[in-house]
């Protein structure tokens, strides 16, 4: 019996989802320190900028105050006090504003090693060393002379430290203009108030990693979040391993159950197997009374055939016969009840039905198709060396039977019981070899598709009425009701003619073959008995 494999697949958990979740958690954990690092770097730059601006503003304010309120008063009242750049070597000398700025920068740098201060110009007095300037300073001076309101700043990073450089312009005030324009050592004597003489630069270096401790509470929070995330990942991986182990066990169990179910399916009709394993039918002792069409077939003179054939050849032929017949039964929707030696019991109407008439027609079509296939198999078996292949008789009956699970709680059999099933077997015995016999109950349901001849009534135990069998001679086409299938099988004759399958171009050959057969038969009948023997 052909049967497709049915498995019970487990619902495996795909590992891709777990890996994606772990990757997402790791990315989030890695992103937190990066975000903190970027915030700290930005904070460091802002702090350096503010400190540089504050320091530059303080020095500039002090220098302006000194120039306007000290130097101006000294110059307005000449005396022993003299504002000079080398005030330390001149009696009564006091520093000029530029020198004061440099002195303030030096004092600040001594106290704060990370702070550097420069007061430089590209126009030094005669006898003074020129001030070296890098590209940033030269560019800043040129741009500030063009527009002194600009802010010139840059940030450089070396390792884990940021260096912020702020350059502001040195603006010539009234006292500065008067002093410079009158001093014989000045390289320029046409200064005006508001001119940019040079630049003032404040550089502050700070390791921005030191600011990380400003976020100690946030870091503590991140630490616990990271620990929780790692713990979650470890727990998830452990659960994933457990789930995978369970899935492997389920897969092995499912494979085992699939193998067992496939083996069990060989002992059940596909309809019964499907209804049981889909949960539609319970495996309990339970029967119903239904109107069924029952088919019963048997091989004529099977016992004599077994004596003529070797056991191996007989087994091969019987298995091929049962396989082919089972395939045809499944094709038409029949429920294969059982094989009784060489006999086959099939019924229509349970567990699925299309109505009594359609069930009966399907059963009749199945029987005709079986006889057709038998004709092909007999030709094959004769070609293989079997002198007398199987000749099968078939009986069909329609009536009410008990159908369901019969047996005990330990061993059950899904089958049918009733006199109508026995009648199908009785009709089979009444059939000629290679023919199909149906009861009147079946004939009444299929009379629009069949040509059948009534036979003498029969009686049987368990059925009070006389049963009128009908010998099936052929089927009618739905188009013109003409005979389109002729099937006759007996010793010396295997005839199966399906007019629907005969091509128009082959009708002449078919007619010639039939006429030749009739002529040969007439010639045999015309011979004297001695010649015939």
Automatic annotation (TrEMBL):
CDD domains: CHD
Protein name: Adenylate/guanylate cyclase domain-containing protein
Occurrences of domain Guanylate cyclase (ranges): 293-428
SMART domains assigned to the protein according to its UniProt record, in alphabetical order: CYCc
Membrane spanning residue stretches: 20-40, 217-235
Source domain of life: Bacteria
PROSITE patterns the record matches: GUANYLATE_CYCLASE_2
Keywords: Membrane, Transmembrane, Transmembrane helix
Pfam families: Guanylate_cyc (PF00211), Tll0287-like (PF11845)
